[in-house]
Amino acid sequence: MTRATADRKTLLGCDTAVVLAPHTRTGATLLAKNSDRSPLECQPLYHAARRRHRAGSTVHCQYIEIPEAAETAALVGSRPFWLWGFEHGVNEYGVAIGNEAVLTREELPPTGLLGMDLVRLGLERGRTAREALETIGELIERYGQGGSGAHDFDFRYSGGFIIADHAEAYVLESSYRQWVARRVEERASISNRLTIGGEYDLASADVRDHARERG
Fold first, then answer.
1. pLDDT tens for residues 174-183?
2. Sign of CA dihedral 22, 27, 29, 34
3. Any idea what the CATH number is for the domain that residue 51 is in?
4. Residues with catalytic roles
5. What is the pTM of this model?
6. Backbone angles phi, psi at 76, to 5 degrees
7. How many independent structural domains does the chain possess?
8. Do the bridges between strand 88-91 and strand 178-183 make them parallel or antiparallel, or are there none, so unpaired?
9. Are 174 and 145 in contact (CB under 8 A)?
10. Which of 130, 112, 36, 113 is nearest to 78 (CA)?
């Protein structure tokens, strides 16, 4: 991918926003997202019922296979036609997640979890925003991110997320196997840039040491 291609991709913009229930006219938490994928890259809505899975079973995400959860929640998601995962979605417990591409100093491998995989896995396995956040964080640390998130060229990136339920929301931002998250007080929005600095509420175990080592 050339720098011009990367810049053009970035300039298109992709945004997720959340406003918590006490601050909306309807009294309901609102999460909204737009996607900057090509108009020719359709995103049909995908519905899955709640399912129980046999012990030891696995699930094949876009590029890698990981252990399956004992039970996965019913959900609806916006799924780019060639991907296993979602750009955004909501599950039966009212957990909603939106995903953004962020470019960092880390060079990602050709295989790993995509941000879209992580959206779907968080929705399948989280009954609250906090559970979904912890699920995504653990998967990032264990498996790392990698592989192309674009259909027609090799475009590798880490994920930024807003994860919300009726009561609370979090912004989670990541770089390969590292992540940090902050709790949303009233409202928040993210795009294709990192927004969390030195103050955060949750993080991967060695994120500070890793940041110091990388300068």
1. 999 999 999 9
2. negative
3. 3.60.60
4. 14
5. 0.93
6. -130, 135
7. 1
8. unpaired
9. yes
10. 36
